[in-house]
Amino acid sequence: MFKYEVLKQHSHSSARLGVITTPHGNIETPAFMPVGTQATVKSLSPEELKTCGAQIILGNTYHLYLRPGHEIVQALGGLHRFMNWDKPILTDSGGFQVFSLNKLAKVTEEGVTFKSHIDGSTHIFSPEHAIKVQQALGADIIMTFDEPMPYPAEKSAVEKSLNLSTRWAERCKVAHAKEAQALFGIVQGGMFEDLRTASAQQIVEIDFPGYAIGGLSVGEDIETMHEMAAFTAPLLPRNKPRYLMGVGTPKDLLVCSGMGIDMFDCVMPTRNARNGSMFTSQGKLNIKNNKYRTDASPLDPECDCYTCRNYSRAYLRHLFIADEIFALRLNTLHNIAFYQNWMQKIRRAIREDLPFDFSWTNDPKADSEMSSS
Question: How far is CA 70 from CA 51, 140, 177, 246, in A?
Fold first, then answer.
């Protein structure tokens, strides 16, 4: 069964050390979830994810619904067995992908009609269908179906959307019938504090075992994102987990953990790895840079991941320039390990009641070619 417990409150911030109990194991929080969009974290095996310290991963409902299909996953024993991952899984509702990949998606009270980005076939996602798909996939934590809003957006449109998302959340709760799964509600409201307040009140009133802060990191500047997250987090119950969707950089995770947020996910560590952009204790490092051509030092001298224990920057650069698949594996393994180690550092600071006096920044003098894509 699902349970959340606050173990310690940080005296230097609003951060809290906690533990989430799920049918597939416990999650120490604050926690970062690697993104496994199509039932895999790109290039890594489940065993490698575990060695990196991953406690929970995220799967995508939209993509798994289209391919291979939720019925197939269910028939083969559910998502955990299908991908050989025996730790917790969270699936998003698919709402973000429905809208971001389908510019002509038609929204009605019933749901959303959209075309597959794979073959152009027409599909309808309603709140009830989103729950049906996620129940078939069998994740430990699932999300309500909502309508994410782009940035910028008119306030009237944001208000209309959040009210629709509230009605959909109510329908999701009614449709949800799998006791082993925890259904989280999602707070919207764009960049408007009064709408954030209204959305939080409405979603909390429905009463979910956990809550997500949605609609951020959608194009707004970092300062605005932090302001909205900091404003929204205290609106959510203290005795339930708070999940900030789609965020972010190591600095984001540190700052937002200090707001009392417990869960994060982002494609940044895996996508950056595939672009040769590496996260290290000294900041971002562009492994494509020519200055690493003869560099025998490890990628990050403070990291003990498999990549850093065994391979030099020169070798990693060679692999990447030569377009070798092994480069993507080693890069991804390190970036995931870095993120997990970063979260362990945050949890240790809370546990030992130390100030968040450690920081992470990208030094523009070191590797100016970096991309945050």
Answer: 29, 15, 17, 23
